[in-house]
Amino acid sequence: MWFEDPGYVSDVVVRPAAEKVIAGMLGGQRNAWEQAVEEVCKDILGSGTVLETKQYTGTYDHRHDSWNMPVKLGIGISAVDDGHATVRLVQYRFAELDVVCQVVSYINGNRLFHKVTVGEIRPAGSRNIFSPENYDRRLREADDAYRALKAALEECGGRAGRYQALLQLTAFLNEQTQALEMPTSTPPARRDLPDWFSFSPAEFERAVAELCRKDGCTRVQTTGGAGDLGADVIAYAPDGRKIVIQCKQYRGKVASPDLQKFAGTVFHIHKADMALLVTTGTVTTPAARLAKAAGIEIVHADRLDGWADGSSQPPWA
Question: Of the residues 87, 185, 187, 254, which has the fewest C-beta atoms closer than 10 A?
C-alpha cells in the first residue's frame, strides 16, 4: 500500500475496446466481473500488480488561487490540494480475466481520490506483465540462455553445429528483445493555430464546435443565440458523455456573473455530464473559485491554444 487510507474512487471510465469485451460476456461472468470491480475499488492500490508509475506536478496560479495540472490527467484532476498526482498502470486478475487500468491518484479536500480508466481486458495469462520484478526476471532468463547457448557453441564439433547453435542464439535474443521492449507513443502532429479575434462571435462558436469534431465528438451542434440558456455548443464525447460549452471571446477576464448564469443552467436544464467554459482570455479569481465549486472546467486562452494546435489533449480526454 502507498497510503494508509485506500481513498475513494471518484470515477470509473471504460474505454470502447473494453466495453466490447464486457458486452460479449455471459451473464454469470459479467456479474462476477462487476462484483470483482466493486471489491477492487474498495482497495484500489492494494489489489493488483503495478506495471508502471509516473509522478506529475502542476503549476500554481496565483491569479486564480489554484493548481494547473497537466491536461493529460483528465477533467477534474485540476482540483488538487498540493499540485501532485500519481498515475499508475495496474493489472488486476479476476473472473479468469486480466484487466489493465490507469489509476490517477490525487488529494482534494484532504481526501485521497482515484480516477480509474479501464483500458484493456484479456483472458488471464495472455498478456505479458511488465512489472519491474518481472522485467528483471526476464533479463536474467535472457542472460542465462545466452550463457548456455554460448557454452554449447564452444563445445560444437564442426561448422554445421556452430552455425545451428548461432541461429538458435540469434532467434532467442531477438524474441527476448521484442518481449522486453515497451511500446512508444508518437506525439500528435501540430495543427495550425487560428486567430481567434478574426472571428465573429458566431464564427468563434463554430470554430470551437469544429475542434470538438476533429477530436472525435459526435452530434456536435452550435446553439448560441437568444434563448440558448448559456449553451453555445453541445457535443458528445467519444465515451458518450454529453458536453455543454459556453464560449466567451474575451480579451480580458470572465467575471463571476457570467459563471453564475452558466452554472445555473448547464446541469439542471441542459443535463450536461461535463461543463466547459472556453474563453480567449482568462477568468477572475472569484470566477475560478465559483467554477471549481460548480464543477465547470475552465479552458482559458493557453489551454485553448494547446487544444487547437494539438499539443494538448482535448478537455474531456
Answer: 185
**66 - beta bridge partners?**
61
> Cell for 59?
503549476
| 8 Å CB contact between 313 and 72 | yes
Return the H-helix or E-strand segment holding 254. strand 253-254
Report residue 110 as a C-alpha cell.
484532504
pLDDT of 1 reads 29
Helix (H) or strand (E) holding 13: strand 8-14
**Tens digits of per-residue pLDDT, 30-42?**
888 888 888 888 8
Phi-psi sector, 110: left (phi>0), alpha (psi -120 to 50), beta? left
With H, G, I as helix, E, B as strand and everything else as coil, classify residue 117.
strand
Buried b (16+ CB within 10 A) or exposed e, 64-81: bebbbbbbebbbbbbbbe
Question: What mean pLDDT comes out for the span 117-135?
Answer: 70
The whole-angstrom separation of Cα 47 and Cα 186 is 31
Name the CA dihedral angle for 7, 242, 314, 52, rounded to a multiple of 10 degrees: 30
Enter the C-alpha cell of residue 24: 460479449
Beta bridge partners of 182: none
First and final CA of the chain: distance in angstroms?
A: 28
For residue 60, CA distances in Å to 82, 227, 311 come to 9, 37, 21
User: What predicted TM-score, i.e. pTM, was given to this entire model?
Assistant: 0.43
116 forms beta bridges with: 12, 103
Written as one string, the DSSP assignment of 48-99 is SEEEEEEEEE-EEETTTTEEE--GGG-TTTT--SSSEEEEEEEEEEETTEEE
Whether 54 contacts 96, CB under 8 Å: no
**Predicted confidence (pLDDT) per residue in 254-296, tens digit:** 999 888 888 888 988 889 999 999 999 999 999 999 999 899 9
Q: Is 201 helix (H, G, I), strand (E, B) or coil?
A: helix
User: How do 84-94 and 59-61 pair as beta strands?
Assistant: unpaired
